[in-house]
Q: What sequence folds into this?
């Protein structure tokens, strides 16, 4: 039996980049930072930051691009994947990334960006088949959607 599963809680290091594939599917690329803090043998506090490349597809990509920005707190679940390609200079290049399965928004601060992840503070769970829910309790930090319906005839394109 094999398992390829990743769980990360961290902050975005840059705004999400949303692109469209030739098939028309959307893909978002985000970069996350996670911190590890420990005390060494001498009792001195040490800290290490790791950076992770995360990719999301479809509706998840659109949701991340719409609601996240640099500094946002995010919980992600996914799998590790390494891609390789031949660069223009003839060298073989590699990129290890996390392909997103599901994610949750972290808590918002007064500036609108997350500073940490606490599941009891009202994060929203989003998977491929789900979008953020309307009508969540008012005491949670959730995304507010307009009450009016969108008329397709009002869209200018």
A:
């Amino acid at each position: 039996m094999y398992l390829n599963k990743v769980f990360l809680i961290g902050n975005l290091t840059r705004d999400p980049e949303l692109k469209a594939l030739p098939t028309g599917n959307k893909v978002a690329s985000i970069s996350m930072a996670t911190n590890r803090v420990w005390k060494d043998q001498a009792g001195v506090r040490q800290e290490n930051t790791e950076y992770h490349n995360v990719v999301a597809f479809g509706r998840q990509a659109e949701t991340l691009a719409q609601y996240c920005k640099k500094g946002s707190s995010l919980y992600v679940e996914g799998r590790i994947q390494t891609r390789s390609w031949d660069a223009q200079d003839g060298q073989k290049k590699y990129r290890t990334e996390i392909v997103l399965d599901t994610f949750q928004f972290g808590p918002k601060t007064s500036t609108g960006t997350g500073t940490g992840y606490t599941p009891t503070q009202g994060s929203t769970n989003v998977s491929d088949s789900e979008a953020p829910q309307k009508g969540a309790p008012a005491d949670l930090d959730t995304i507010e959607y307009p009450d009016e319906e969108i008329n397709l005839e009002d869209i200018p394109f």
